[in-house]
Predict the structure.
Amino acid sequence: MNGLRLKLNKKETPVFRRRKMVRIKETVIFQILNFTRMKKRFIWLSGIILVLLALTPKPENRLTGIWELQMDGASTGLLKLYNADGTTTNIGLGNDGFGISMEGSYALQSANSYLEKTVRSAFPEQVGAQKLVQFRLTGDSLLHLSYKISGETYTEDYKRLQLISGQ
């Protein structure tokens, strides 16, 4: 019986021994059933916690789209793309075509911040870098970004590009 031993006294009667054995068996069965109940409660509690975590609202992603960097209110031809799958790309448009200056991913941290991870960059020292970017949307078409690199704060202003419907 899993290491349980009966201490039998030679003076004990057979009836007393049987009763003692029955009590020990009842105790073991009770412990097994109690453990099984605890396992069931743990499984139910874990399931409830997972459901609640899944139902927790995530910040709405209002960044998805194509944004053009603005300098003194004028267009620059520098685009920032935020994709719904969490990837981002910076593209520069010029007379000779275009170039990709950065590719990476972003994950919303709150309603007004995201963590950006650089996967590829025209600047090798930025590959693998992560930065916390604070953003503010004005209406649905203006985006203000603020972030730090090596202790220095940078700000950028973007205007959302409106795509021609059906394209």
